[in-house]
Structure formats: C-alpha cells, structure tokens
Design goal:
- The protein is an alpha/beta fold.
- The chain is 40% helix and 14% strand.
- Helix 3 packs parallel to helix 9, helix 4 crosses helix 5 and helix 10 packs parallel to helix 14.
C-alpha cells in the first residue's frame, strides 16, 4: 500500500466552500494588500493565541527578524538558539548582524535544554529563541526563569507549533514575541508563503508595523522613518487562513489521534518514539522517531522501496550548515544534537490520514526488523 508523506487536500475538504467564498470576497473587493481581510485575521489570531497583537508578515523567517529587531537586538549581540532546528532560526539572527550561539537540546523532546542554555550565556547574550520543534513547546517554565534572572528577551519560534500549549498557555504567548509560519504544510498552513508575529508589547508592535511596510510612518504613510522591508501577509492568504483557523483545533486533534495510533502500533519495536512533556500539549506537526544502532538510512530506504516516503529532520544541524560557517558564531557542546542527527526519521502524518495508512507504515517497519 502506497502512503503519501503529506496530503494537504484532505484537510481542505472540510472548509473548501467557505475558503472559496472568502477568497471570492477579497477578489471582488480589490483590497489585496493590508486590507480588511488581513485586519480581521490578525484580530482572530491574536485572540486565539492570547496576545494583544498579531501582525501578518511575508514569512516565518521575516517574523523572526522583525521580532528580534523590534526588541532591540543589534549587531554584535548574542542570541541563543538550538542547532537542531531549521536554518531560518539562526539566519534571522545573522540578518541583524547578531551572533547565534548554539545550545543543545533534550533527547526526548528535541527542544532546547535549559542546562545547555545556561552554559551558553555570556555578557553579550540578549535573547533566547526556543524553537517549539515538531509541534511541542520547549520547557518554557525553565527558560523563562533563566531569561528573567539574566534579563534576556524570549522570542518563540512557533513556526511548527500552531495551537500547542505549555501549562495551558498557547504557543506565541509565552515570551516577549512569538513567530509563526503559514507555509502550506504547517498545522495552520496557507496556500503560499506567509507569517505572523504575536506580542503584547505595544512598542514592538508599532515597530513591526513599520518594518513590514517599507518603514512607512504609522500615522503618515508618506513619511519613511525606518529602514523597512516589503513583507506583508496578503489579503488572499489572510482570508483563507481566517477560515482555516476555525478548524485548527479539530485538525490538531486529528494529528494527535494519528500520533496515538503510531504510539500504540509501534510499541515494542526498537524505535524510540516521541514523548509528550508533562506540561505540554503536542500538536504533532511532525512525527519523528529515533532509529538506533545506525539503521536509520537502511530503514528509510526500506520504507521507500515499499512505497512509503519518509524524511530526515535534521541530518545537518544548523551549526554545520555551510552558510553558518562563513559567519561569526559560537556554540557549547552539542552531544545530543550530534546523536539525533544520525537517528531521527520523520514518518508520514497529516490530518485525514487513515488507520489503514498508519498500519501500512507500521507493518513496513516491522517487516524491516523481522
């Protein structure tokens, strides 16, 4: 049985008619940039996240850049980031001339290890970017305590964690700012690129309004008093996402249900399965297992031969990426990151995935070990 790695069309069937109607409304209005559709979506997303403000931008990477810049991160400042993540997290730091400092992650959650963060702090440290990787929040209780003690900003990289919770608080409302991507495969994915910054800091909000819109003044848009970008979430994306947001919790429950099937059916295999932390609600953007004894690539090839695609996140950690090596960085010891890069394998998981498809994946894995 062939199993797709991801099938976005299944979830869209739930709200296709509403989405088409919303898009048609925007088309008729002609308000394609900074229009009512985006204003509405920003208000809805802020209410969902539990923050005062939400600001639509062009991508999750831009969201990170703008959030850091709005909080005053500048050239020469150090920002602690995990190396076991997507490269955008560190690129945002480099875009500002700041220095990414790579810390290690916890083996069972894949998220920033607070003890490693403590080792990475220096007199130049100004911020921490916890990445809520694969759909589970980092240990925000410990990280917020560290940030408070050392007077550091926290910018959440929640690009994989729409709807995730830590101690019943939504991702994006746990730090000074939260950053989201609406890339199509995300839990709240659009039909193109897009991003969002959430914050309750009014000064930061006003700065981001200018950054995303060519540095134009807020009261007088004919005046440019910032060096800005052209990075605005367009109205068509906003209209689509506004409809999909209504279904996000339901879609996340479907992801959790698929993950639970995997948990049960893969129990007893040699694989190390993902774990949900005590204070977290995992929304399973990805279902990532660990394959021991150096067999990851062999299992991946076996699955592919049986019509089951899988992926590796992240075989080359950020600190080892060629682009990073050309810039000034710093890192502490990363033993868990080095271990994970050789073991992790991402299995198919998406809303609408059937139990028969999960069973096919599991059976192929069991055949490999048999």
């Amino acid at each position: 049985m062939k199993v797709p790695y991801f099938d976005v069309s299944r979830q869209h069937q739930k709200f296709s008619a509403e989405a088409h109607a919303a898009i048609e409304k925007v088309l008729k209005s002609g308000a394609f940039i900074l229009g009512p559709a985006m204003n509405d979506f920003e208000s809805e997303f802020a209410a969902y996240a539990g923050t005062r403000f939400a600001l639509g931008v062009g991508s999750g990477t831009d969201a990170l850049i703008f959030a850091l810049k709005a909080l005053g991160i500048k050239k020469g400042d150090e920002v602690i980031v995990p190396s076991f993540t997507f490269t955008s997290t560190a690129l945002a730091v480099l875009h500002l001339g700041a220095i990414p400092v790579f810390a290690d992650v916890q083996e069972h959650t894949f998220n920033l290890d607070p003890q490693s963060v403590l080792q990475a702090i220096s007199e130049k440290t100004r911020a921490i970017i916890p990445v809520h990787l694969f759909g589970q929040c980092a240990d925000m209780t410990a990280l917020k305590a560290i940030a408070k003690k050392h007077k550091l900003f926290i910018v959440e990289d929640a690009c994989q964690a729409h709807g995730a919770l830590w101690n019943k608080v939504m991702a994006g409302a746990l730090g000074h700012a939260g950053c989201f991507s609406f890339y199509p495969t995300k839990n709240l994915g659009g039909i193109g690129d897009g991003g969002m910054v959430t914050t309750s800091d009014e000064k930061a909000m006003k700065r981001i309004l200018q950054y995303r819109n060519l540095g134009k003044g807020i009261k007088d848009t004919l005046v440019h008093d910032e060096i800005g970008w052209t990075s605005r979430l367009d109205s068509l994306q906003a209209a689509f996402l506004s409809i999909k947001l209504k279904f996000l919790d339901e879609l996340n429950r479907e992801r959790r249900a698929v993950a639970e099937l995997y948990h049960k059916k893969l129990a007893g295999t040699p694989l190390a399965l993902p774990r949900e932390a005590a204070h977290a609600c995992h929304v399973y953007h990805l279902y990532v297992v660990r394959v021991p004894q150096g067999k990851r690539d062999a299992l991946k090839n076996h699955l592919a031969a049986e019509g089951i695609p899988s992926m590796v996140h992240y075989a080359t950690p950020v600190h080892a990426q060629p682009v990073i090596k050309t810039h000034k960085t710093r890192k502490v010891k990363l033993p868990v990151t080095e271990k994970l890069r050789r073991e992790v394998l991402t299995l198919p998981l998406f809303p609408g995935m059937t139990e028969a498809e999960v069973t096919a994946v599991v059976q192929s894995i069991k055949n490999f070990y048999a």
